[in-house]
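Continuing the series of single-chain predictions for the mutant panel. This is the parent chain; the variants come on the following pages.
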Amino acid sequence: MKKTAVTIACAGFLISALAAVHPADAAGVHAAPISMVNASPVQLLFLQAPPDRAKTLPQGTGRLTVSNSLTNTLLVEDDPGPATGIIDLEMLRTTVAFSYGLSHRLDLHLSLPLALSGGGAMDHFILDVEQAFGNARKVREEESPGQHHFDLRRGGRRVIGSDHRATGAGDLAMHLKALLLREGGSTPALAARVGLKLPTGRRSRGLGSGGTDVGLGLLLEKHFGSVAAFLNADVIFPGDIDDPEVQAETFYQAMFGMSYAFTEVWSASAQVAYTSRPFSSTGLTMLDRRIVDLLLGVTYQHPGGFFVQAGTMEDIVDSADAGADISFFLNLGWHF
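Parent structure:
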C-alpha cells in the first residue's frame, strides 16, 4: 500500500504531540469524525458526503465551524488519445458550516465553501520530502514548481477546467440527518441523512458543476470506553453538467473512522475514506479511478464549547494519479 513520506512525517509529528498528553479518565468524551473530503478540484464540483456521526445535536443547540484546508494537487495525463488532462495547483479552501438541532432526533447542516487556487508554495517542499525518502513521483520531479493548470479535454475541447484561478464561493450544500436508533449496550446508533447541493458556484471558474445534486446516506456510531467508531455510507446522484462529451453518473462514498479520547479535552482521529467517481470510461485515470484517503488528526475541545482540529489527509493505495496529493487542515468551531 502506497503511503508517501509526507504522511509518514506528519503522522510522526502527531504521535509525538500526543505522547506528551497524559491519559486521563475520558470515557464518553469523543469528537465527531473530522469533516474533511478529498479536495481534488474535479471531485469538489459535486456534492460530497462529509464524515459525520450518527448522533444528532440536542434540540435547540447549534455548531458553527470554519474549516480551512490547503491542498496540493498534481495530476498529468498527456499521452496521445481522445482525452488529456492536467491539474497542477494549490487550493486554499475555507468552508463555513452551520448545524442546528431541530428536534431530539433531527438536525440540519448547511455549508458553503470559499476557494482560492493558485500555483502555491508547497511544490518544492513536497518534492524535497519525497526525494529524501526515495519515493518521489516522476511527474513531481518533472514539474515546474508554482504553476497553475486546470484543463481536462476530450476531442481537443475543454470539458472541465478554467483558465482563471478559482476565487469565490462554491456550491451551497444542505444535509438533513435523522436519528433512527439510539446507541444501546450492544447496538450502535443509526441515522439516515439526505443531502442537496445547489449550483451557486460558477462552473466557468471551476467552482461548481452547474447541476443540482442529491445524496442519501446511512451513519453508524458506537462507543467502547474511550474509543469511538464511525461508519458512513452514501450514494450521490449528480445533476447534469451540461456537456455532451462527459456525463455525470451515480457515485458512492464510504468512511470508516475511529477516535480515542486521551483526556477530557484531547482526542486523536484516524479515518479512511473511499470515493467512487461520477465519471467512467473517459480515458483519464484522474476521472475514472476511485480514490482512497487516509486522514490523521487531533482535536482539542475547550470546556466552553470551542474546539480546534488539525491534521493532514493523504491519498493512499494507488490513488496518487486520481485525487488530491496532500491536504493540511485547521478547523475552528463552537458548540452553542
